Amino acid sequence: MRLHGTHIKLTERSLYSVDVKMSVELDVFVGNTTIMDKEVYQLWLNGYTVNDAVKVRIEGGVMEECEASAEVLLSDTMDQYRTFQMCERLLHHPAKLANQLLFQIPPDRQAMLIERYYAFDDSFVREVLGKKLSKGTKKDLDDVSIKTGITLKSCRRQFDNFKRVFKVVEELKGPLVENIRQHFLLPDQLARDYAAIVFFANHRFETGKKKLQYLTFQDFAFCAGQLINNWTVGAVDNMMEDMDVDLDKEFLQDLKDLKILITDKDLLDQHKNLVCTALRGKTNVFNEMEANFKNLSRGLVNIAAKLINAKDVRDFFIDLVEKFIEPCRSDKLTSIDVNLYLTHYTNSAHILDTFKHHAVWTRYMGVIKSCILRMYHD
Amino acid sequence: MPGRLKAKIVAGRHLPVMDRASDLTDAFVEVKFGNTTFKTDVYPKSLNPQWNSEWFKFEVDDEDLQDEPLQITVLDHDTYSANDAIGKVYIDIDPLLCSEAATVISGWLPIYDTIHGIRGEINVLVKVDLFNDLNRFRQSSCGVKFFCTTSIPRCYRAIMVHGFVEELVVNEDPEYQWIDRIRTPRASNEARQRLIFLMSGELQRKIGLKVLEMGGNAVVGYLQCFDLEGESGLVVRAIGTACTLEKMSTFPATATHPNNSSPSKDMKEPGFGEEAPGVPLSSGPPTPLRAQTFSSFSPSKSYSRQSSSSDTELSLTPKTGMGSGGSAGKEAGPLKALLKQQTQSALEQREYPFFTLTIFPPGFLLHVGGVVSARSVKLLDRIHNPALGNTRSYKLLDWNSFTADEPETRDAWWEEIRQEIKSHAKALGCHAVVGYSESTSICEEVCILSASGTAAILSSRFMQDGPLDTEHRFEEVVSPGCGFCHIPYDELNIPFPAQLTYCYCCRRYKVPDVLFTTIDLPTEANVTGKGCLIQARLCRTKKKAQGEGNAMAISNLLPFLEYELHTQLMNKLKLRGMNALFGLRIQISVGETMLLGLASATGVYLTALPSPGGIQIAGKTPSDITYEQHISNMQKKINDTITKNKEQYEINPPEVVEEIIGSPIPEPRQRSRLFRSHSESSDEVSEIDLSHGKKDAFVLEIDDTDAVEDIHALLTDSPTPAGFYSCNTEIMPGIQNWTSAIQMFTSVRVFRLNANLTNQGLNKIFSDLCENLLKSLYFKLRSMVPCCLCHLNFTVAIPEDELIQVAVTAVAMSFDKEQTLENGKRSGEKTLIKAITENDEQLQFNLELNAETSSPNPLGSPKGLSEVGSHPSARAPSVDYSSFADRCSSWIEQLKLKAHTIRRGSVKTTSSMEKASPLPEGRSRSLRSNRSYSGSSVAVVKMTPLSFIPGAKIIKYLGIINMFFIRETSSLREEGGVSGFLHTFIAEVFAMVRAHVAALGGNAVVSYSMKECVFMENPNKNQAQCLINVSGDAVIFVRESELELTSVQPQSATTQTSNGGEGT
Q: CB–CB of B768 and A103 under 8 A?
């Protein structure tokens, strides 16, 4: 068995010297039940070297607690690191962990190992979200590491996890989140996050622009969830014939029809009147809303119409911010105002006489509304 | 054709990628037994093949069934070049040969390759049909049960304990054959693994035959060892205790009963078709009859010396003689006559009255004399025979013809040592040796053979003959808690200076001031407080030397080594305020430039023995004031430590007025510096039990640096951290309420000594590294606190110059602290008593028989005792060192003489059966179901070096596990260095043990031990190799809480044991 781990070098002639006269050349501890310390596991996941991990542990006060010496701690840390390295290849295929014979690990421990191995840092994922999970991106990880303060080892693990999940799920049919959960035995929330990451990577959504910096991973993950649940093929057709990863092409095609809302002058005015009637007296920023109506409506409908082009899909979030969120913000709309506006904006369209695309409109605006509301913060 | 072995290959999973192009594997399987091989179809392009083969049937002799393993090889089919081996599985089918053990082997077994380790798993089904064997001249001993456990296995009752069985077989080591130079490391490793499998099988079969001869049906305390003698060969030897066991029928409904109606049942009967030994005793007097069988052997004849052919003769002669006597013997009259003929006790007739047991049925162990040990240094001889040189090694099986004399030599060596042990025991007034074990340490051509045990007097209850003396038996009834401490020797002729007092429990018999033993603490013993692990560690430098000179140098060093180890033990024992050692194991390892000595034992305070005095330091130059101060400081430190230790181990014995009786106190000088003339085989009788003087006046003289070192060593032993206890015995006295959380582990460390060191420097380092290892263990297991590390077994070795290897295997067991504190001792005692009474019920041996046999002859041994008592140990048979060289040369001559004598002519049949395998391609395609194994999770298998599992009841023993693996790598760095390599290997060994146990239907291994861990490295070449040998008993256990639900039978003792927080 080869150990691929790059985390520690155990190949030195001696592991550590106790004193000048003697050095430890080999030091192993194997339990019938594999002993794993959660704290050390986390340090390992965080990419600490053995020596750094020992330092952290000493500072944590474990020594006083257990009457141990630094030497004992070093020995234990190295041993644990080695165990984790040996387990790592199993963690790449979590299902294997349950029916492998080499390590006897209680099920709750197995779950812990998997969950923590696949956990990621929000600050890291923000850096690679929407990027192609390619070798090129991996090469740039050292920059990410410097920027985020997360060790390169940890960055690589997280990146490889994304890539691994992506590769496996890419080939599978059926609901994305469920696939991830079953293949990687992840808890529900983590599976959803991975679904978002895969979804973003697949569509290469732009998330790195300066204007998007204020958005957190959880904001994007929420939006991704909305898109997955409403705009993909799987969302309408539960036959599991296609994957959740791709947006519903037919729907995107239909979105072009919404253009009528802005191209037809009458319709646009009619829409504006309806919305304004409904909003009048209900908000302090009514005048700004009224003044900006055509602009905002054009923005949203144009986004819809462009989504058929993969290139424009990438700019979905930047467009939302530029075309809608920023104007609203400069007019000092509160999120309650935005909610109110969008609610009436969506509903009023259904009352329009000549507007026929109610289903598409609902499907489109439902997602847009919840995405905008989620993204509408400082 | 007494047996049919059937094997079915079901599927594989997690196979390695063998074809780089497709990232897949075209796997097929070869199933081999003896010379017959079957093959499955190739299952193309899959890492999870579903072969679903037919049943491959092998029709074989049961002798072969015992000797040979079933060999399963998984290969990758290659159309154009040779098929690549993926790995192998060796399956020991011995458990299937005994009707009471496993019935089928079925499950996922790791596919193992000596270069790559575990490479996926294979699902197999193996069964054996045994036919009735009417052949009395058979060579097999199918049906004899083997147990590693050194006590009567939990679900059996001992009807008879027959005694010592031993055997050894010798072969050339394939690694040292000329062909090794041209074959691959893999081929060489596999040859070695297979050979050792075969030799183990043969050894077990031969021991089984001896057991049948003795009228037994089982071997308990089976200890098998390998001596890798390098060029001079490979020795596999085993010792054990033959018993007649009967399965207890107190089974819950859940227990699966062995199929008694199967023909294999007959196999377990001894060859002469009288009553089966397992039949209840009421069925007449088979027992005395068998006694006669036994006594009709010539006692001087060693079993081990018989060749396989003469074995048969010997075993049959008395049996046929028995046939006539047997029928007559059914009446009571002839019985008495028979008994009268037995003027000597069976033990006296026995060549070696040795028992490998360490725990005994209640009432079996009457008195304990002390530790007896013997060592001898031997030179391994190369048997070079140029005439045979070329023909060797093509076949592994023909060792019989070439090295026939070798077992003779080795046997003679061991015989010598055993005789010595026997005479030591006699000197202590004992007729038996219990807790007996043997070991070796080899460095180049020098070999130290060691044997040790505890001299004891046993009750005749479990033996065929009359009682040894009724007085002892009577006494034993009176005081089970202290009886074993009472001296067995004559107090007027004490074989060594000892301090005798009246027993502190019963006040009627005399006890020594300290007691050292190699056995476990008897369950019924009265103990004050808790116990702890006590280790004496010693390192001695030695000049590099060759041949006889080297052997001589080692021989000269040994007595000093043992003496110092003993002194250290004694000091440390006193420092802890304790007065007895159990489970004493002294290991001496030899290297090129040093000798290592490690003595481990569990110290306890026996209530029956007097309280140990403190340690007093005496300076030599009282004029110097600073020196005086220094001394008084040290004295204070020591006193403080003793007080602290007494507190920690809860030793507060009731104050009693002491009366000193017995032997005159020797001069102080003599007491602490007692020298004996050491023989080549150093005898350790007197030394071990020698008293270090008067109570309260144990004087350590600081007259040289040694003593200062001693004291430092004493004080540097760091105390066990809070919440931890440790012992090297099965259980810790004073702790009863174990939880079910157990964690077995193995830890190995290798240290490199970087500088030239003095003896003191070495000592310090060696002591430190043992201490540090213990500290690491405590730290690792801190989550289990409060817990006790039980059966801590240290093994030291010197793999090469300047390297010290220490391996530890033990089990950490959690216990319930609350309870200990609250109703601590009382509840403990209660459960103990309960356990004993329960035990007594379970082990009701036939008292009727006892009474009958006990009345007629109370003579014999008392006389022998007094006679023996007068032998001072110094007169124990021994040879002067000066004669050592002579003896060596005489061995060589003897060997030369015998070199051409081929005694064992048994040629294995090579006519192979037709290879019946090739099936038309694709025939079984349709069988390929889409069975998915990915969902199945792995069954938990517990492992423990102890003979029991806390909070659980063992309901069935499935057979012995005895596995030998070699692992080698030529990419050491890539595998994580030496630590990574060994870590993986040990984990793999555990995994394979667990998988085989699970395949037998078991859920635990008890009495597990790692008997060999030989690690060699060559970092410059990026290579390493390791050999590991493990053994244990596969069992099925049921949690007591579950048992209660299913069984009507009331359960006792540890019912409170929580089921939660399970460790393993």
A: no
Nearest to B776 among A14, A72, A106 (CB): A72
Work out whether the CA dihedral B95, B98, B99, B101 comes out positive or negative: negative
Contact criterion met (CB < 8 Å) for A18 and B995: no
* Rounded (5°) CA angle B221-B223-B227: 170
Asked if residue A308 lies in contact with residue A255, where contact means CB atoms within 8 angstroms, the answer is: yes
Q: Do A12 and B977 touch (CB under 8 A)?
A: yes
Asked whether the beta carbons of residue A22 and residue B780 sit closer than 8 angstroms, the reply is no
In Å, how far is B50's CA from the nearest CA of chain A?
A: 17
pLDDT-derived band of residue B616, with 50, 70 and 90 as boundaries? confident
Contact call for A29 and B1063, based on CB within 8 A: no
- Pairing relation of β-strands B942-943 and B1004-1018? parallel
As a whole number of angstroms, the distance between CA A214 and CA B334 comes to 105
Instruction: Please compute the mean of the pLDDT values over residues B918-938 and round it to a whole number.
Output: 40
The pTM score is: 0.80
Q: State both tokens at A295.
A: 């602009």
The beta strands (E) that lie in B655-737 are given as: 698-702, 724-726
pLDDT, tens digit, for every residue of B417-434?
999 999 888 888 888 999
Give the pairing of strands B1023-1039 and B952-969. Answer: antiparallel
Of the partner residues A68, A82, A99, the one whose CB lies closest to the CB of residue B983: A82
Query: Is B382 strand, coil or helix?
Result: coil
Question: What tens digit of pLDDT does each residue of B236-271 get?
Answer: 999 999 999 888 865 444 433 333 333 333 333 333
* Confidence band for A17, pLDDT divided at 50, 70 and 90: low
Q: How far apart are CA B430 and CA B368, in angstroms?
A: 8
CA distances (Å), B562 to each of A10, B539, B552, B675, B686, in order? Answer: 38, 11, 16, 11, 12
Nearest to A101 among B765, B974, B994 (CB): B994
CA distance B89 to B112: 6
What contacts B1010, CB < 8 A, 6 or more positions away? B746, B795, B807, B809, B989, B1028, B1029, B1030
Chain B residue with minimum CA distance to A33: B1064
pLDDT band at B712 (very low <50, low <70, confident <90, very high): low
Residues A140 and A28 sit within 8 Å (Cβ to Cβ):
no
What are B21-72's pLDDT values in tens digits? Answer: 888 899 999 999 988 999 999 999 899 999 999 999 998 887 788 888 999 9
CB atoms A101 and B1019 under 8 Å: no
The DSSP annotation for A356-375 comes to: --HHHHHHHHHHHHHHHHHH
- In the structure, what pLDDT confidence band is assigned to residue B1007 with cuts at 50, 70 and 90? very high
Q: Which two tokens stand for residue B133?
A: 């064997």
Confirm if B230 and B173 have CB atoms less than 8 A apart.
Answer: yes
From CA B839, how far away is CA B855, in angstroms rounded?
Answer: 26
Cβ within 8 Å, pair B983-A83:
yes
Interhelix angle A335-351/A358-375, nearest 10 degrees: 180
* Contact yes or no for A175/A240 (Cβ under 8 A): yes
Residue of B nearest to A107 (CA): B937
**Chain A residue at shortest CA distance from B990:** A32
Q: How would DSSP label each residue in A244-295?
A: SSSB-HHHHHHHGGGGHHHHSHHHHHHHHHHHHHHHTTS-TTHHHHHHHHHH
Mean pLDDT of chain A: 86
Model confidence pLDDT, tens digit, residues B690-711: 333 333 445 565 555 556 666 6
* Cis bond before residue B786 (omega within 30° of 0): yes
Q: How far apart are CA B551 and CA B700, in angstroms?
A: 32
Classify residue A213 as exposed, middle or buried by CB count within 10 Å of its CB (0-12, 13-18, 19+): exposed
